[in-house]
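Researcher: Please predict.
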Amino acid sequence: MLLALVLFPLVVLVERAAGLSLPEGLGGSGAHASASVLYVARDGTPLREVRGKEHVRASWVPFDDLGESTRAAILAAEDARFGLHPGIDPLAVVRAAAQLVWNRRVVSGGSTLTMQLARLVAPHPRTFRGKVDEAALALRIEAALPKRRIFEEYANRAPFGPDVRGIGAASRVYFDKAPRDLSVAEAATLASIPRGPSLYTVGKRTDLVLRRRDRVLGRMRAAGSISEEVYRRALAEPLAPRFTRPVFGAPHLVAGLASGALAELGGGVDLGSARRVVLSIDPDLQSEVEAQVRSIVRPLAGKHVTAGAAIVLDNATGQVLAYVGSPAFDDAKHLGQNDGVVALRQPGSTLKPFVYGLGMERLGLTSASVLPDVELSVELPSGVYRPKNYDERFHGPVRLREALGSSYNVPAVHVALRVGEDALLERLRALGMTSLTRDAAHYGPALALGDGEVRLVDLANAYATLARGGESLPVRAVLRIEAREGQLREVATRPRDRVFPRVVAAAIADVLADKGARVPAFGERSALDLPFPAAVKTGTSKAFRDNYAVGFTDRFTVAVWVGNFDGSPMQGVSGVTGAAPVFQAIMLAAMRGHEGDKLTSSEADELHDVTVCALSGGAPHTGCSHTVRERVPRERQLQPCAFHTTVEVDTRNGLLASAECPRSVVSERHVEAYPPELVAWAKAAMRPLEPTDGSPLCGGRSAKNAAYLQIMAPRDGARFARDPDRPLSQQTVPVRVAGTLGAPVRLRLDGKVVLSSRIGEPLSFALSPGEHVLVAEGAGDVRSEAVHVRVD
């Protein structure tokens, strides 16, 4: 009679199950939606566990990775006859019914492991109807899925605590192990929890947990899963949990990868399918960088410094070794969850190496080339732009080495004008600074001084490109992922792209590593000094809103930003006082054990030492009283010094002697001859200039007494594009002519005079499509060389 009462409902349940469909996600790709993703460092050190949509700790473990002891313990605790029934265990139902009738209370349940899975994926009220639905769904699950998959689904969905789901997370939380590494006693302990997660609380109700564990061990012995000896050893094993607290390493990087905001650093791998993500982070270096970024705030708090960020790259691979987005992720007052590594900020002088690099490539400049650091006025549509140096001084003729090393602004703008703003913008984008989305006219020549917004990660990679000899690589923070289905997916390596010639990258690196080149601006000792070769550059944006220190060795690139996330200015904090000390400490930590004697692999191959005139940067001759050592490209032939020359003067008045002068009053004098843009500076500095007038005591006229004109901008071969949104009559090209200040000058465009003015006053001509020839004319027959331009 009892058997009939059991079998009849089973038939009804089978019919009911046939009309059911599997719950969404069960056995399919959505089965792991609630699983958390574990992000680990390159050596396996856990960084952070990002929880799934149910906000619980969960880590999906495939059936084969559960381990025999863990599988046996779960079966002993929940369903010893799992392999024998179709989802409902008739014997268990009969037993439960008989005990209910005999004892008039529930002594044991009839739920199978499959029925418990049904309850987990389709929760229902604890009513008779709910139990019927649960049983029917269990039959449907058994008909659709193999036993291995059913067991795997249950083991990864069962509750093991208030915010712990699945045996994978439980084994990590309670014992800091993978399920396959649990001892028999530990496996039995965890298998005991799902029956009553709030009752069997490991670490709180030890007596109840031990009694339940020992019962499970007894069932394992009875089922033949363990031997008598193993059983006795397991009983004697003390309950010794090793609780793991949630970790929070590299929070900005992990948060960005998990949300997709930093998908570019994932190397194209779909992180949505991952259960474990192995990052390129070096955990020890990450900890040191975090400490150094935290150290920024305290000593500079009185100067309104509240934020900072840093990133360390491996030059050879482009991998991120350390990533710190702010001093404190949880500092809401100072916007600590903002990520300074990818925030758009003005980079200040850190763009200058790329300006000079382009000048070396396009204009043939070397580190010995002399550039004008004198007052400069640039006509722009918005007005006249007059760049100034940080020290509010002009330094006259400076070699490129000193101009870059001491971070003078005016020479950088001078070179930017010569190479052209369009070419500079194109090169910066090729280096990865794709946040510069406006056209070149928007930025103007001030782009050379950082007048545009870039990300610290892109700036760091641009410097790493120099360290690689001019070859770019994408930045990557992910090494590989372990997918939820168990597959291992490596991040593919990308080919390198050449952005600068090797010789240019080597030359710029050599200048940035030259401590002597920094002395005029930063003094004999500064926070930029390191005990090994390192190329370093600082930068400070307008009104002290941002400052930077970026640099590299042969192995690593380090970039540091200091400022405030709300955009408010600091109080007089520059790159060398704000970011540089942190840069120094981080680079020392990164290079620990890697100290070398070279900066880049291309240095020795591409550059060699030469002696040059200290004033002109040219090959010295007898007139050069002071020389210095320089490092220039091996294939470059230095031109003779053009600044020092010897002239004959009339000793009676110091003016130029002509052939008619008696030899008794003629003497040779060493003088200096400067290009037009430096003459005014030379006069003000009282340099020994060549006389401009011949001696009237001798009669005749000196051949040296000649006027001079040169068009400095636009450069020969320049191209201009019309703005279709502005009237053509309002579009002009600024012209800069070098000559005697205040002297009259005429501009001829295609043979026609288009403007008459004076040297030093604003000059320009209107745009018109086509090829044009521009010539400047002075008094008499003085003419400049022709400049050819094109307007598209």
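Model: Residues 104-108, 701-706 have pLDDT under 50 and may be disordered.
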